[in-house]
Every structure is written in structure tokens, then in C-alpha cells.
């Protein structure tokens, strides 16, 4: 009986002109026995990619936000609206009281924003994404662990000196802390990392982290253009935030006249003062000798 059903199926496939491609195959298989349908399961599969947390970040230890990915659907599956719930630990026990995100708007699409009223710096949080009452992703953290400051601002540079050969120069780079970081009262202590490179290079040179908002950069070539950028992180915890806007440093090549002038000018003064000193000493010597003869 199965053989006759198979022959009938093949006949329908050859004579059907109302369907084409995958539609024809699906229509034919729908009439075939289950044993034939099982050899082509791809027509029935239904997959989706559930939302996942991408990052949680606090720029100044007073607020924070969490972001997640969009759901990717294939087929007819629909997870429904995504909601974020959170809970905080009270002393040594979790409250187990899950509350919904207080603000889905301020931090942008697919995000939840916690202002200072909902932020406790030393109390651990757990958050979860839910859809239709089921959990699709979750994570736990303390606010101090997710601190990533905003970029430093107002980068500028000044020339310190040029080498006697006129080939290299030293500069001082300065910047200001992120405006929302309360460093004056010590609520945040920031550590900065400066990176620089020639414009046509791809690899950045990294300087050692510092606590001040200025640092000298030595031995730059005077006929090159450089890019400088700075980022910061909370000292002893958290991760580096985004880099500042790039600062461009152009050091024009010094003229030969300038180099020679810089090189010989101090020696000229030394020679003049040296001759003057020798003249005075010779005058004193002759005067003393004349005095002895008179005595």
C-alpha cells in the first residue's frame, strides 16, 4: 500500500502546475504519509533568538542603565513584550520582591534606566528579562562593578621644548574629567590612560595609567601629525569607559636657521662673559703687579 501511495505522490508532483518550488513540495508532502513528511523536517522548523543582556553601566556611581538585544524571530514564534524586573539584597538576604523597570525610555531602545532614587552603590542587584511570564536572561552585579565613566573632555596640548637638532619635540597634554564625575568631593577617583600614534599608523602607543589630568609626551617627530586620545576608569574597580574625541597634534619642521640660532645663542653668551671675565682677571693681575713695583 505504501508503494502505491508513493507512486501517487510522484504523479501529483509531475502533473501539478499550480504550485512551484517549495510551495509545491510542501503541498505534496501534506498529502503524503507521515513517514515521507519526516524526511524533510526543514519545512516545519521554527527557531528564534531570544533577547540577551549586552551591558549594564554606571557613568558616575549614582545612576545606571542596562541594555539588551532585540529578539530575532524565524517562523511564527513570538515571545511577546519584553519586560525587565529587578531585586536587591537586603542585608544578607535577597528580598525576593521583583519590581519592574522604573524607566524604559531615558536610556534608549531596549534599555532600562535607574536614576539615583533606585540606585544603591553597595547593594547587589539581580535583574532578569521576561516574556509571557518566562525568564529569557538574567544576571547579578553590584553598581560599583559596572562603573564606566564618560569620556574626558577639553583635550589640548602645549609645546614644552624642541631638541637641539630640531628633529624631536616634547609636548604636554591636558584634559578635564567627565562633567558628571564628582571628583571634587572624592566620590569618584579616576585613573586615566593616554594613547597616541602617528596619523598614518594603525597601532596606538599606550602610556602608563595616571591620576592627574595632564601628562608629558616625549620625543615626537616634528614633521609628523599625531592623534591623541584619553579614557578613564574608576581606580581599583570598574572598566575603562569610552575614549575621548581625538586630539590632533601637528609639529611643523623647524627651519635650519632656527635650529642654528637655538644651538649657538647660549654659547655666544658664554663666550662673551668668558672674554669679559678674562679681561677683568688680566686687569687685576696687571694692577697688582704694578703695585708691587711701586712698593
Description of the molecule:
The structure is a single chain. The chain has 4 helices and 17 strands. By secondary structure, the chain is of the alpha+beta class. Among the domains are: 88 residues, Immunoglobulin-like; 98 residues, Immunoglobulins (Immunoglobulin-like, Sandwich), CATH 2.60.40. Strands 5, 6, 7, 9 and 10 form a 5-stranded antiparallel sheet that branches. The longest helix has 39 residues. It is elongated, with a radius of gyration of 38 Å.
Give me the secondary-structure category. Answer: alpha+beta
Enter the CATH topology name of the domain at 153-250.
Answer: Immunoglobulin-like
Mean pLDDT: 80
CATH architecture of the domain at 153-250: Sandwich
Total number of helices: 4
First CA to last CA: what distance?
153 Å
Percent range for β-strand residues: 25-35%
Q: Give me the count of strands.
A: 17
Major beta-sheet overview: 5 strands, antiparallel
Protein name: Growth hormone receptor
InterPro entries: FN3_dom (IPR003961), FN3_sf (IPR036116), Growth/epo_recpt_lig-bind (IPR015152), Ig-like_fold (IPR013783), Long_hematopoietin_rcpt_CS (IPR003528)
Pfam family, one: EpoR_lig-bind
GO biological process, one term: growth hormone receptor signaling pathway
Amino acid at each position: 500500500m505504501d508503494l502505491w501511495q508513493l507512486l501517487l505522490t510522484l504523479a501529483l508532483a509531475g502533473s501539478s502546475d499550480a504550485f512551484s518550488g517549495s510551495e509545491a513540495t510542501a503541498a505534496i508532502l501534506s498529502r503524503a504519509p507521515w513517514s515521507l513528511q519526516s524526511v524533510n523536517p526543514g519545512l516545519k522548523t521554527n527557531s528564534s533568538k531570544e533577547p540577551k543582556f549586552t551591558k549594564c553601566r554606571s557613568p558616575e556611581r549614582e545612576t545606571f542603565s542596562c541594555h539588551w538585544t532585540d529578539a530575532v524571530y524565524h517562523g511564527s514564534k513570538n515571545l511577546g513584550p519584553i519586560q525587565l524586573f529587578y531585586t536587591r539584597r537586603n542585608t544578607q538576604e535577597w528580598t525576593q520582591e521583583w519590581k519592574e523597570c522604573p524607566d524604559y525610555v531615558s536610556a534608549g531602545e531596549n534599555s532600562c534606566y535607574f536614576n539615583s532614587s533606585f540606585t544603591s552603590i553597595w547593594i547587589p542587584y539581580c535583574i532578569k528579562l521576561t516574556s509571557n511570564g518566562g525568564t529569557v536572561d538574567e544576571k547579578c552585579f553590584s553598581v560599583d562593578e559596572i562603573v564606566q565613566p564618560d569620556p574626558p573632555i577639553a583635550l589640548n596640548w602645549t609645546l614644552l621644548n624642541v631638541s637641539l637638532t630640531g628633529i624631536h619635540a616634547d609636548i604636554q597634554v591636558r584634559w578635564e574629567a567627565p562633567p558628571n564625575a564628582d571628583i571634587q568631593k572624592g566620590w569618584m577617583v579616576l585613573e586615566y590612560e593616554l594613547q597616541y600614534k602617528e596619523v598614518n599608523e594603525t597601532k596606538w602607543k599606550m602610556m602608563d595609567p595616571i591620576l592627574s589630568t595632564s601628562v608629558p609626551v616625549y620625543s615626537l617627530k616634528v614633521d609628523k601629525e599625531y592623534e591623541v586620545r584619553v579614557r578613564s576608569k574608576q581606580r581599583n574597580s570598574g572598566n575603562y569607559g569610552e575614549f575621548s574625541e581625538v586630539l590632533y597634534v601637528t609639529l611643523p619642521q623647524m627651519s635650519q636657521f632656527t635650529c642654528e640660532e637655538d644651538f649657538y645663542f647660549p654659547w655666544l653668551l658664554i663666550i662673551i662673559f668668558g672674554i669679559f671675565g678674562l679681561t677683568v682677571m688680566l686687569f687685576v693681575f696687571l694692577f697688582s703687579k704694578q703695585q708691587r713695583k711701586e712698593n
